[in-house]
Specification:
By secondary structure, this protein is mostly helical. The protein contains five helices and no strands.
């Protein structure tokens, strides 16, 4: 009996750990870009120096803290909102996040040299194209029935 109990407990612990590592309880990958992956990609594509890497990491860390605060603020109010209010709240949050990202991009460009800025602008254009493509895909999928 004790062996069975501990075996079930161990399986439960491992399952919870795996789910937590994945970032979302439904098993899907975490939403949004991974800041560490994006930073590593920038380091490789822009050939960043260690000093530049450290400066950009600070910008990313600040941006992530701000976004986390926005999400927590929004999630606390969601339960009392109607569908239209949630949609408006989401759109407002998206505008704030886009403004925040634009501000971060400006700060990053201040750190980069001329050649790196050219490549960084290409990266921004690629990111925007991916966002547009994602929006188009979401428009094509069927609406949820609630």
């Amino acid at each position: 009996m004790k062996k069975t109990f501990f075996a079930v407990l161990a399986i439960l612990f491992v399952s919870c750990t795996i789910m937590q590592a994945q970032g979302r309880p439904d098993g899907r990958p975490p939403k949004g870009p991974d800041p560490e992956k994006r930073l590593q990609d920038m380091k490789e594509r822009l050939n960043l120096s260690e000093k530049q890497y450290d400066q950009i990491k600070v910008i990313f860390d600040d941006m992530e803290k701000e976004r986390r605060g926005m999400r927590e603020e929004r999630s606390g109010d969601r339960r009392e909102m109607s569908r239209e209010e949630r949609r408006g709240s989401r759109e407002e949050m998206m505008k704030k996040m886009m403004a925040q990202r634009d501000e971060a991009d400006k700060k990053i460009m201040e750190i980069l040299n001329e050649d790196q800025i050219v490549e960084f602008k290409k990266m921004i254009k690629e990111r925007e194209e991916m966002m547009i493509k994602g929006r188009d895909i979401r428009k094509e999928r069927p609406k949820r029935i609630e």
